[in-house]
Protein backbone atom coordinates (compact mmCIF):
# COMPACT_ATOMS: atom_id res chain seq x y z
CA UNK A 1 0.00 0.00 0.00
CA UNK A 2 1.43 3.37 -1.05
CA UNK A 3 1.09 6.03 1.68
CA UNK A 4 -0.83 9.30 1.12
CA UNK A 5 2.42 11.27 1.60
CA UNK A 6 4.09 9.36 -1.29
CA UNK A 7 1.18 9.56 -3.73
CA UNK A 8 -0.93 12.58 -2.82
CA UNK A 9 -4.53 12.62 -4.07
CA UNK A 10 -6.79 15.66 -3.87
CA UNK A 11 -10.10 15.44 -1.98
CA UNK A 12 -11.97 14.95 -5.28
CA UNK A 13 -9.83 11.87 -6.02
CA UNK A 14 -7.66 13.57 -8.67
CA UNK A 15 -3.89 13.19 -8.69
CA UNK A 16 -2.00 15.95 -6.87
CA UNK A 17 -0.50 18.18 -9.59
CA UNK A 18 -2.24 17.19 -12.81
CA UNK A 19 -5.75 17.20 -11.25
CA UNK A 20 -6.76 14.17 -13.35
CA UNK A 21 -8.61 10.92 -12.65
CA UNK A 22 -7.70 7.80 -14.64
CA UNK A 23 -10.74 8.13 -16.94
CA UNK A 24 -9.68 11.68 -17.93
CA UNK A 25 -6.48 10.46 -19.60
CA UNK A 26 -6.16 9.04 -23.13
CA UNK A 27 -3.54 6.43 -24.03
CA UNK A 28 -2.00 8.86 -26.55
CA UNK A 29 -0.55 11.89 -24.80
CA UNK A 30 0.81 15.05 -26.42
CA UNK A 31 3.13 17.00 -24.10
CA UNK A 32 3.91 20.66 -24.72
CA UNK A 33 5.91 23.07 -22.58
CA UNK A 34 3.76 26.16 -23.10
CA UNK A 35 0.25 26.22 -21.54
CA UNK A 36 -1.02 28.29 -24.48
CA UNK A 37 0.05 25.53 -26.88
CA UNK A 38 -2.56 23.19 -25.33
CA UNK A 39 -5.32 25.23 -26.98
CA UNK A 40 -3.46 25.22 -30.31
CA UNK A 41 -3.43 21.41 -30.21
CA UNK A 42 -6.97 21.02 -28.85
CA UNK A 43 -8.35 23.37 -31.54
CA UNK A 44 -7.58 20.57 -34.02
CA UNK A 45 -9.61 18.00 -32.03
CA UNK A 46 -12.98 16.98 -33.53
CA UNK A 47 -14.53 16.63 -30.05
CA UNK A 48 -13.42 17.49 -26.51
CA UNK A 49 -14.62 15.51 -23.48
CA UNK A 50 -12.49 16.86 -20.62
CA UNK A 51 -10.34 19.77 -19.57
CA UNK A 52 -8.59 20.73 -16.30
CA UNK A 53 -5.92 23.15 -15.14
CA UNK A 54 -3.70 23.33 -12.06
CA UNK A 55 -0.61 25.59 -11.97
CA UNK A 56 1.18 25.17 -15.34
CA UNK A 57 -0.42 21.77 -15.98
CA UNK A 58 -3.32 22.26 -18.39
CA UNK A 59 -4.97 19.15 -19.86
CA UNK A 60 -7.52 18.76 -22.65
CA UNK A 61 -8.76 15.32 -23.72
CA UNK A 62 -10.61 14.77 -26.96
CA UNK A 63 -10.64 12.94 -30.27
CA UNK A 64 -8.73 13.55 -33.49
CA UNK A 65 -9.33 11.34 -36.56
CA UNK A 66 -11.32 8.93 -34.36
CA UNK A 67 -8.47 8.45 -31.86
CA UNK A 68 -8.46 9.70 -28.28
CA UNK A 69 -5.68 12.07 -27.21
CA UNK A 70 -4.83 14.06 -24.10
CA UNK A 71 -2.73 17.19 -24.57
CA UNK A 72 -0.95 18.35 -21.41
CA UNK A 73 1.35 21.31 -20.72
CA UNK A 74 4.39 20.47 -18.62
CA UNK A 75 5.86 23.92 -18.08
CA UNK A 76 9.63 24.18 -18.46
CA UNK A 77 12.27 21.68 -17.37
CA UNK A 78 12.97 18.11 -16.36
CA UNK A 79 11.93 18.70 -12.73
CA UNK A 80 8.39 19.23 -14.02
CA UNK A 81 8.75 16.11 -16.19
CA UNK A 82 9.46 14.07 -13.03
CA UNK A 83 6.01 15.19 -11.80
CA UNK A 84 4.17 14.71 -15.10
CA UNK A 85 5.61 11.27 -15.98
CA UNK A 86 5.16 9.84 -12.49
CA UNK A 87 1.58 11.10 -12.24
CA UNK A 88 0.69 9.88 -15.76
CA UNK A 89 2.08 6.44 -14.92
CA UNK A 90 0.25 6.38 -11.58
CA UNK A 91 -3.03 7.19 -13.34
CA UNK A 92 -2.73 4.09 -15.54
CA UNK A 93 -0.61 1.64 -13.52
CA UNK A 94 -1.60 2.22 -9.86
CA UNK A 95 -5.02 1.44 -8.44
CA UNK A 96 -5.62 4.83 -6.78
CA UNK A 97 -8.37 3.55 -4.48
CA UNK A 98 -6.43 0.55 -3.16
CA UNK A 99 -3.11 2.44 -3.51
CA UNK A 100 -1.55 -0.66 -5.05
CA UNK A 101 0.47 -1.20 -8.23
CA UNK A 102 -1.67 -2.99 -10.82
CA UNK A 103 -0.58 -6.41 -12.11
CA UNK A 104 -1.49 -5.61 -15.74
CA UNK A 105 0.47 -2.56 -16.93
CA UNK A 106 -0.67 -0.07 -19.57
CA UNK A 107 1.76 1.62 -21.94
CA UNK A 108 1.15 5.21 -22.99
CA UNK A 109 2.29 6.77 -26.27
CA UNK A 110 3.85 10.09 -25.29
CA UNK A 111 4.83 12.65 -27.94
CA UNK A 112 6.34 15.97 -26.97
CA UNK A 113 5.94 18.86 -29.43
CA UNK A 114 8.39 21.57 -28.39
CA UNK A 115 10.53 24.48 -29.45
CA UNK A 116 14.29 24.18 -29.67
CA UNK A 117 17.60 25.79 -30.61
CA UNK A 118 19.74 24.20 -33.38
CA UNK A 119 23.38 23.35 -32.73
CA UNK A 120 24.47 22.72 -36.33
CA UNK A 121 24.78 25.44 -38.94
CA UNK A 122 22.80 23.44 -41.54
CA UNK A 123 19.62 23.16 -39.41
CA UNK A 124 17.72 26.37 -40.16
CA UNK A 125 15.11 28.16 -38.12
CA UNK A 126 11.63 26.64 -38.84
CA UNK A 127 13.11 23.13 -39.42
CA UNK A 128 11.58 20.12 -37.61
CA UNK A 129 13.85 17.79 -35.62
CA UNK A 130 12.75 14.35 -34.42
CA UNK A 131 14.93 13.41 -31.45
CA UNK A 132 16.15 9.82 -31.89
CA UNK A 133 18.24 10.17 -28.74
CA UNK A 134 18.32 12.64 -25.91
CA UNK A 135 21.32 13.63 -23.80
CA UNK A 136 20.36 14.73 -20.29
CA UNK A 137 22.51 17.46 -18.76
CA UNK A 138 19.93 17.60 -15.95
CA UNK A 139 20.83 14.66 -13.70
CA UNK A 140 17.17 13.95 -12.79
CA UNK A 141 17.20 10.31 -13.94
CA UNK A 142 20.22 9.62 -11.71
CA UNK A 143 17.99 9.81 -8.61
CA UNK A 144 16.38 6.49 -9.72
CA UNK A 145 18.08 3.10 -9.31
CA UNK A 146 18.91 0.88 -12.28
CA UNK A 147 18.77 3.52 -15.04
CA UNK A 148 21.95 2.17 -16.72
CA UNK A 149 20.28 -0.63 -18.76
CA UNK A 150 18.03 2.02 -20.34
CA UNK A 151 20.91 4.33 -21.28
CA UNK A 152 23.33 4.34 -24.24
CA UNK A 153 26.49 3.96 -22.13
CA UNK A 154 29.04 3.89 -25.04
CA UNK A 155 27.57 7.17 -26.36
CA UNK A 156 27.72 8.70 -22.85
CA UNK A 157 31.35 7.65 -22.39
CA UNK A 158 32.45 8.98 -25.80
CA UNK A 159 30.63 12.28 -25.21
CA UNK A 160 32.14 12.84 -21.77
CA UNK A 161 35.63 11.97 -23.01
CA UNK A 162 35.40 14.21 -26.09
CA UNK A 163 34.11 17.24 -24.19
CA UNK A 164 36.26 16.76 -21.07
CA UNK A 165 32.99 16.77 -19.09
CA UNK A 166 33.58 18.35 -15.66
CA UNK A 167 32.61 16.20 -12.69
CA UNK A 168 31.21 19.29 -10.96
CA UNK A 169 28.38 19.22 -13.57
CA UNK A 170 25.45 16.75 -13.34
CA UNK A 171 26.32 13.31 -14.75
CA UNK A 172 25.19 13.41 -18.43
CA UNK A 173 23.07 10.45 -19.59
CA UNK A 174 21.77 9.33 -23.01
CA UNK A 175 18.42 7.60 -23.70
CA UNK A 176 16.81 6.55 -27.00
CA UNK A 177 13.33 7.52 -28.20
CA UNK A 178 10.74 4.85 -28.94
CA UNK A 179 11.77 3.48 -32.33
CA UNK A 180 8.16 2.51 -33.08
CA UNK A 181 7.01 6.12 -32.62
CA UNK A 182 10.04 7.59 -34.43
CA UNK A 183 9.32 5.38 -37.46
CA UNK A 184 6.04 7.23 -37.97
CA UNK A 185 8.00 10.39 -38.78
CA UNK A 186 9.97 9.32 -41.84
CA UNK A 187 8.96 12.15 -44.20
CA UNK A 188 11.65 14.40 -45.70
CA UNK A 189 10.36 17.35 -43.63
CA UNK A 190 11.49 15.60 -40.41
CA UNK A 191 15.25 15.65 -39.66
CA UNK A 192 16.54 12.93 -37.37
CA UNK A 193 18.57 14.28 -34.48
CA UNK A 194 20.21 13.93 -31.11
CA UNK A 195 18.82 16.45 -28.64
CA UNK A 196 20.40 17.80 -25.48
CA UNK A 197 18.02 18.55 -22.61
CA UNK A 198 19.59 21.28 -20.50
CA UNK A 199 18.64 22.26 -16.93
CA UNK A 200 18.44 25.92 -17.94
CA UNK A 201 18.05 28.18 -21.00
CA UNK A 202 21.10 30.41 -20.47
CA UNK A 203 24.30 29.02 -18.89
CA UNK A 204 23.34 25.34 -19.34
CA UNK A 205 22.82 26.02 -23.08
CA UNK A 206 26.03 28.07 -23.36
CA UNK A 207 24.36 31.52 -23.48
CA UNK A 208 26.40 34.31 -21.94
CA UNK A 209 24.68 37.50 -20.79
CA UNK A 210 26.60 38.69 -17.70
CA UNK A 211 27.96 35.48 -16.15
CA UNK A 212 30.87 33.52 -17.67
CA UNK A 213 30.53 29.76 -18.30
CA UNK A 214 32.19 26.87 -16.45
CA UNK A 215 32.95 25.24 -19.84
CA UNK A 216 33.19 28.10 -22.39
CA UNK A 217 34.11 25.77 -25.29
CA UNK A 218 31.29 23.28 -24.66
CA UNK A 219 28.94 24.34 -27.50
CA UNK A 220 31.82 24.22 -30.02
CA UNK A 221 32.75 20.72 -28.81
CA UNK A 222 29.08 19.65 -28.97
CA UNK A 223 28.91 20.85 -32.58
CA UNK A 224 32.07 18.87 -33.49
CA UNK A 225 31.23 15.66 -31.58
CA UNK A 226 30.50 12.53 -33.67
CA UNK A 227 29.58 9.04 -32.44
CA UNK A 228 29.06 6.36 -35.09
CA UNK A 229 26.73 8.14 -37.56
CA UNK A 230 25.33 10.52 -34.95
CA UNK A 231 25.88 14.22 -34.46
CA UNK A 232 24.18 16.40 -31.87
CA UNK A 233 21.52 18.62 -33.42
CA UNK A 234 19.63 20.73 -30.88
CA UNK A 235 19.01 21.99 -27.35
CA UNK A 236 15.74 21.96 -25.41
CA UNK A 237 14.84 21.23 -21.79
CA UNK A 238 12.64 18.12 -21.27
CA UNK A 239 13.30 15.14 -23.58
CA UNK A 240 16.00 13.30 -21.61
CA UNK A 241 13.70 12.91 -18.60
CA UNK A 242 10.69 12.03 -20.78
CA UNK A 243 12.71 9.32 -22.56
CA UNK A 244 14.39 8.02 -19.41
CA UNK A 245 11.28 7.76 -17.23
CA UNK A 246 9.18 6.44 -20.13
CA UNK A 247 11.66 3.64 -20.85
CA UNK A 248 11.94 2.73 -17.16
CA UNK A 249 8.13 2.75 -16.67
CA UNK A 250 7.30 0.95 -19.94
CA UNK A 251 5.88 3.80 -22.03
CA UNK A 252 6.78 4.88 -25.58
CA UNK A 253 8.11 8.41 -25.98
CA UNK A 254 9.26 10.73 -28.74
CA UNK A 255 10.06 14.45 -29.05
CA UNK A 256 9.60 16.53 -32.17
CA UNK A 257 10.76 20.13 -32.10
CA UNK A 258 10.34 23.24 -34.17
CA UNK A 259 13.70 25.01 -34.42
CA UNK A 260 13.18 28.63 -33.36
CA UNK A 261 16.85 29.65 -33.01
CA UNK A 262 20.16 28.69 -34.60
CA UNK A 263 23.01 29.10 -32.16
CA UNK A 264 25.72 29.29 -34.85
CA UNK A 265 24.12 31.65 -37.34
CA UNK A 266 22.68 33.71 -34.47
CA UNK A 267 19.19 33.76 -36.04
CA UNK A 268 15.92 33.37 -34.13
CA UNK A 269 12.20 33.39 -34.96
CA UNK A 270 10.32 34.78 -31.97
CA UNK A 271 7.08 34.77 -34.03
CA UNK A 272 7.14 30.99 -34.38
CA UNK A 273 3.49 30.23 -33.50
CA UNK A 274 2.11 29.90 -37.08
CA UNK A 275 4.96 27.42 -37.84
CA UNK A 276 4.17 25.56 -34.61
CA UNK A 277 0.53 25.22 -35.66
CA UNK A 278 1.63 23.57 -38.94
CA UNK A 279 3.91 21.16 -37.07
CA UNK A 280 1.15 20.19 -34.61
CA UNK A 281 -1.23 19.28 -37.46
CA UNK A 282 1.49 17.22 -39.17
CA UNK A 283 2.27 15.36 -35.94
CA UNK A 284 -1.41 14.58 -35.25
CA UNK A 285 -1.80 13.33 -38.84
CA UNK A 286 1.33 11.15 -38.65
CA UNK A 287 0.06 9.61 -35.39
CA UNK A 288 -3.39 8.80 -36.75
CA UNK A 289 -2.74 7.81 -40.39
O1 LIG B 1 8.45 25.31 -26.23
P1 LIG B 1 8.65 24.30 -25.12
O2 LIG B 1 7.85 23.06 -25.36
O3 LIG B 1 8.41 24.88 -23.75
O4 LIG B 1 10.19 23.84 -25.21
C1 LIG B 1 11.33 24.67 -25.08
O5 LIG B 1 11.05 26.01 -24.72
C2 LIG B 1 11.32 26.23 -23.33
C3 LIG B 1 12.40 27.30 -23.18
O6 LIG B 1 12.03 28.47 -23.80
C4 LIG B 1 11.76 24.88 -22.75
O7 LIG B 1 10.65 24.22 -22.20
C5 LIG B 1 12.28 24.19 -23.99
O8 LIG B 1 12.33 22.79 -23.92
O1 LIG C 1 17.47 27.82 -27.90
C1 LIG C 1 16.43 27.33 -27.45
C2 LIG C 1 15.17 27.57 -28.04
C3 LIG C 1 14.05 27.01 -27.49
N1 LIG C 1 14.19 26.23 -26.38
C4 LIG C 1 15.38 26.00 -25.80
O2 LIG C 1 15.45 25.31 -24.78
N2 LIG C 1 16.47 26.55 -26.37
TrEMBL record:
One GO cellular component, as annotated: cytosol
InterPro entries: Nucleoside_phosphorylase_d (IPR000845), Nucleoside_phosphorylase_sf (IPR035994)
Enzyme class: transferase
Gene Ontology BP annotations: purine nucleoside catabolic process
The Nucleoside phosphorylase domain, residue ranges: 29-269
Catalyzed chemical reaction(s): uridine + phosphate = alpha-D-ribose 1-phosphate + uracil
GO molecular function annotations of the record: purine-nucleoside phosphorylase activity; uridine phosphorylase activity
UniProt xrefs under Pfam families: PNP_UDP_1 (PF01048)
E.C. code: 2.4.2.3
Name of this chain's protein: Uridine phosphorylase
Species, as recorded: Mariniphaga sediminis
